[in-house]
Write a structure and sequence with these properties.
This protein has helices at about 10-25, 40-45, 70-80, 100-110, 125-130, 140-145, 150-155, 170-180, 200-210, 240-245, 250-255; strands at about 50-55, 60, 65, 85-90, 115, 135-140, 160-165, 180-185, 215-220, 235-240. Residues about 260-265 have low confidence and may be disordered. Strand 2 and strand 3 (about 65) form a beta hairpin. It has eleven helices and ten strands. With about 260 residues, the chain is an alpha/beta fold.
Amino acid sequence: MIPELSKVPGVLGEIARRRLAEVRALEGASFTPPKEAPPSFAEALRQPGLSLIAEVKRKSPSQGEIALELDPAAVARAYQAGGAQAISVLTEPHYFAGSDQDLKAVREAVALPVLRKDFTVHPLQITQSRALGASAVLLIVALLGPLTEAYLRQARAEGLDALVEVHDEAELELALAAGASIIGVNNRNLVDLRVDRKNAPRLGRLARARGFQGLLVAESGYSKPEELEEIVELFDGVLIGTSLARSQDWQRAAARMRPGAQAGR
């Protein structure tokens, strides 16, 4: 159940292939899940208004160094105090300077659901995510293609929610066919790293037109409260990373991007 990654272009393919090689080194390892179920990522997105998923992020291929010295636990606590409904933690080590330890530290620091933001290219990563204390995993349709449904089934079987990420119409159709209940629309093209904030509203409306009744999350490109106006009536959540992590005043930054007074979908 390994996706074909040889033809995935650009930075996305480069990261995914390197990640797969690393994960394969863990084949045969066993992971023990926590005794208690993690808080629900889906329920956090169902809260009134546009739920904020605030990201612990040190660097990225598009932005370079963002906040290399940040303490993930301290940042997560600040995000929680600022009104975030969930925390996203990057665990990819080379391009994002993340780690599994970051996720474990955040899980211990806050009561919020935690999304493991990584490049899921092997079923073992889903089992590992549950053991680390994640509430949800990221499934990128551009990587998984027709295997998206199988990975989604495994995540559900292991008690995890899945943020199924799409960037274009073809990927959206695959996500819908796979039975995704949480769809993330990325404004960033992961091949050339360009951002187009018109992408989320466009694909969000298309998903609803196709009869999608699940949860929608907008991703990438948001740094000002007024930018959320274009998604607040259509989306259930927004994932914000760079602008929050770079702020150094994480509680205030999260509160500023938390449009609690605005009505949700």
